[in-house]
Design brief:
Blueprint: H1 2-10, H2 16-46, H3 49-59, H4 75-86, E1 96-97, E2 103-105, E3 108-110, E4 115-116, H5 120-123, H6 127-130, H7 147-155, H8 170-187, E5 188-193, E6 214-219
């Protein structure tokens, strides 16, 4: 905010309201979204005791896994992919408009000017794309070893949007999540409490955060 106000001081046309809006957008888009994704990941893992033990074993080994690399190759990375697939932070349709002369798409015709979009949360539960268990948290779907299947999962995961509507900060977000998740499980014992129905019942707003969830971090004595 200080930097934005400094620009305002030099260029009065750069109004205070505009500076305030940019600062708010930076916090909401760059911080709240990543934080909400981390909460979802930790809650999904820690509400499954057996899965949590497997993640802890990986993260407390001699070499910590990168949890959000190019390809999910560990249980931890698969959990991150699956949690963020089911819990898209931005639960809105980033719409487009059908061009002049209309649009033919998958056997349907949309006249010129038609507003088109898809809800990421509903899309992630499409059984035609993700299988009959699309609405279930199953990290193993990312570890099948089938490259064609993996490419399909990646292609239709709208965590960071898609094509021209994709998040410009997604690489930074992947890096943060990929480093923070293993470090937390390495250095802490985590206890999670999620309200009943918390994974499926959340306000129909721009953000879809797991409101009411509580995570307790207990430092490990032998953590490195």
């Amino acid at each position: 905010m200080e930097q934005l106000l400094a620009i305002h001081a030099k260029k009065p046309d750069f109004g205070v309201g505009y500076a305030r809006g940019m600062a708010g957008s930076s916090v909401a888009a760059g911080h709240d979204t990543t934080g909400a994704s981390l909460v979802s990941i930790l809650c999904r893992i820690c509400t499954n005791p057996d899965l949590q033990k497997r993640v802890e074993q990986e993260c407390r080994g001699e070499r910590m896994p990168l949890a959000f690399g190019d390809r999910p190759s560990t249980v931890t990375s698969a959990c991150v992919r699956e949690a963020t697939r089911l819990q898209h932070v931005t639960n809105i349709s980033l719409s487009r408009v059908a061009p002049r002369n209309g649009l033919h798409l998958h056997g349907h015709f949309f006249p010129e000017g038609t507003v088109l979009g898809v809800n990421p949360t509903s899309f992630a539960r499409n059984r035609d794309l993700f299988g009959p268990d699309a609405g279930e948290f199953k990290p193993e779907r990312w570890l099948s070893g089938d490259e064609d299947h993996l490419r399909t999962l990646e292609r239709y995961n709208l965590l960071f949007g898609g094509q021209s509507r994709s998040c410009p900060g997604q690489n930074l977000a992947r890096l943060i999540i990929g480093l923070v998740v293993p470090r937390l499980f390495r250095n802490f014992d985590l206890q999670v409490k999620v309200p009943e129905g918390g994974f499926d019942n959340y306000p129909p707003q721009f953000w879809t955060m797991l409101s009411g969830s509580k995570i307790k971090f207990i430092p490990r004595q032998d953590s490195k």
